[in-house]
Design brief:
Strand order of the largest sheet: 7-8-9-3-10-11
CATH architecture of the domain at 2-83 and 146-211: 3-Layer(aba) Sandwich
Strand content: 15-25%
CATH topology of the domain at 2-83 and 146-211: Rossmann fold
CATH superfamily of the domain at 2-83 and 146-211: P-loop containing nucleotide triphosphate hydrolases
Order of helices and strands: EEEHEEEHEHHHEHEHEE
Bound molecules: adenosine-5'-triphosphate, magnesium ion
Largest sheet: 6 strands, mixed
Number of strands: 11
Shape: globular
């Protein structure tokens, strides 16, 4: 991001943000509620566009990319889980659809099982899933087919300790394999334990970017 500001209804939500994310980074993002964290990830996933400033991806203006190509490269798991369609399967087929592929049922089953979910969840209606189940289905949708960049918005907030650990391990392994991770969390402990860099956002501005390791 180069001098990015985002203004909505006369309100300055992000102010002159400049941030360089390196390939392979694991950046954890913390900051008070309403400070602008989710807005930052929405900008990085091109769900919204900056009011001013620019966002480059691999050195090229993000706006110049084909949006479908960008969806394959940069995958965003939104704060509320955000399932779409009718069933869990609709969500898990999506990463394949945008690549023009058939859903790989074995790969889906393997990832679900890592997250402690059986294949029976596929036929479940979204609305009949628990908060934690929704969160894990959304996460599986985000991680299938290994995107280059994964943006996570409080993805363990509805999970118990054991499932949180499992999710953390899966994300860490992805990062070990070279995937760039940006992870918003409200847990200071989690942010320091997982991140290689810690970004603190305050009132729409970057307060600090700490290198942890
Ligand atoms: N579409 C919008 N229209 C108007 N205001 C918005 C919009 N999106 C976000 N905001 C405002 O921008 C500010 C930052 O919101 P954002 O969701 O980025 O915060 P956050 O840091 O993710 O907070 P939380 O920790 O509660 O998720 C808030 O004051 C919010 O009300
Ligand atoms: Mg948020």
């Amino acid at each position: 991001m180069k001098n990015v500001s985002y203004i909505k209804e006369d309100k300055i939500i992000l102010k002159d943000i400049s941030l360089q994310v390196e390939e392979g980074d694991f950046i954890t993002i913390v900051g008070a509620s309403g400070s602008g964290k989710s807005t930052m990830l929405k900008l990085f996933s091109h769900l919204i566009s900056p009011t001013s400033g620019e966002i480059l991806y691999r050195g090229r203006d993000m706006m110049s990319y084909d949006p479908v190509l960008l969806r394959r490269e940069i995958s965003y798991c939104v704060q509320s889980g955000g399932l779409f369609g009718r069933t869990a399967e609709d969500n898990l087929a999506f990463p394949y659809e945008i690549r023009g592929l058939e859903m790989d049922r074995e790969a889906v089953a393997a990832l679900l099982s890592k997250f402690g979910l059986g294949q029976d969840v596929l036929k479940e209606e979204n609305r009949s899933l628990s908060g934690g189940e929704k969160q894990r289905v959304a996460l599986a949708r985000t991680l299938l087919l290994k995107p280059a960049v994964v943006l996570l918005d409080e993805v363990t907030s509805a999970l118990d300790q054991e499932n949180t650990r499992i999710v953390e391990d899966v994300i860490r392994q992805l990062n070990d394999g070279g995937t760039t991770i940006l992870w918003i969390t409200h847990s200071p402990e989690q942010s320091r334990r997982l991140g290689s860099k810690l970004l603190t956002v305050e009132n729409g501005e970057i307060r600090s970017l700490e290198v942890l390791r």
